Amino acid sequence: DGGITQSPKYLFRKEGQNVTLSCEQNLNHDAMYWYRQDPGQGLRLIYYSQIVNDFQKGDIAEGYSVSREKKESFPLTVTSAQKNPTAFYLCASRVDRAPNTGELFFGEGSRLTVL
Amino acid sequence: AQKITQTQPGMFVQEKEAVTLDCTYDTSDPSYGLFWYKQPSSGEMIFLIYQGSYDQQNATEGRYSLNFQKARKSANLVISASQLGDSAMYFCAFRGGGSNYKLTFGKGTLLTVNP
């Protein structure tokens, strides 16, 4: 079945370490997104990519980096510059259908805890 | 910038009754879209329903309907005949005009269905 796979599901890291969260989709969707969710909060956009080799900053990009070398993959790196990285991270792709409403399809998320 | 507001942090409903979850938005875009997503305790985001700003009729999907009042800038979700499995966080999301299809999410409402 088609879907989005995020790994790892749970990740612990020490302060000062970079960590990369994987997001792979086999839906053949062009656009992919990374959101961050904190307890009691909605989702906030970190980065998005509408096409391979191109990506844009979202509302809270500081301390994060991404790459989009393949259509299927959109990994997110949480760098040591991110001041408060403990959060739930959700990857999504935009559903391609006419008319394009902008509906997003989400992965199951990765929970990052900084010790 | 668009703003989306969910004023109910938590709601309770008896099984088999209907419940309305509130969502208001603020925009000057003539073309936009509104979404509702469900997030169970497992964390994944599940798309429920979409309403476009130019749609003449309120959207419906099974037990979900969207009470769209454009002049009041509200897009409330109505769940009929609540089931225990409806207990979850519910997020309203806004998509403005333009081609980047970024979604802005509200802070969510935690719905608890009582037996």
Task: Summarize the structure in short.
Chain A has 115 residues and is mostly beta strands. Chain A contains no helices and 11 strands. Chain B starts with a strand and ends with a strand.
List the helices and strands and how they pair.
The complex is a heterodimer of chains A (115) and B (115).
Chain A: E1 4-7, E2 10-13, E3 19-25, E4 32-37, E5 43-51, E6 54-57, E7 64-66, E8 76-78, E9 87-94, E10 104-106, E11 110-114
Parallel strand pairs in A: 2-11
Antiparallel strand pairs in A: 1-3, 3-8, 4-5, 4-9, 5-6, 7-8, 9-10, 9-11
Chain B: E1 3-5, E2 10-14, E3 19-21, E4 24-26, E5 33-39, E6 46-52, E7 60-61, E8 64-69, E9 74-79, E10 88-95, E11 103-105, E12 109-114
Parallel strand pairs in B: 2-12
Antiparallel strand pairs in B: 1-4, 3-9, 5-6, 5-10, 7-8, 8-9, 10-11, 10-12
3D structure, described in words:
The complex is a heterodimer of chains A (115) and B (115). In chain A, the strands form two sheets. In chain A, strands 2, 4, 5, 6, 9, 10 and 11 form a seven-stranded mixed beta sheet that branches. Chain A is 0% helix and 49% strand. In chain A, a hairpin with a 5-residue loop joins strand 4 (32-37) and strand 5 (43-51). Chain A has strands spanning 4-7, 10-13, 19-25, 32-37, 43-51, 54-57, 64-66, 76-78, 87-94, 104-106, 110-114. The model of chain B has no long low-confidence stretch (mean pLDDT 95). With 115 residues, chain B is an all-beta fold. Helices cover 0% and strands 51% of the residues of chain B. The radius of gyration of chain B is 14 Å and the shape is globular. The interface between A and B is medium-sized, with 28 and 25 residues.
- Annotation, overall tally of beta strands of chain B: 12
Q: Biggest interface and its residues per chain?
A: A-B, 28 and 25 residues
Structural class of chain B: mainly beta
**Structural class assignment of chain A:** mainly beta
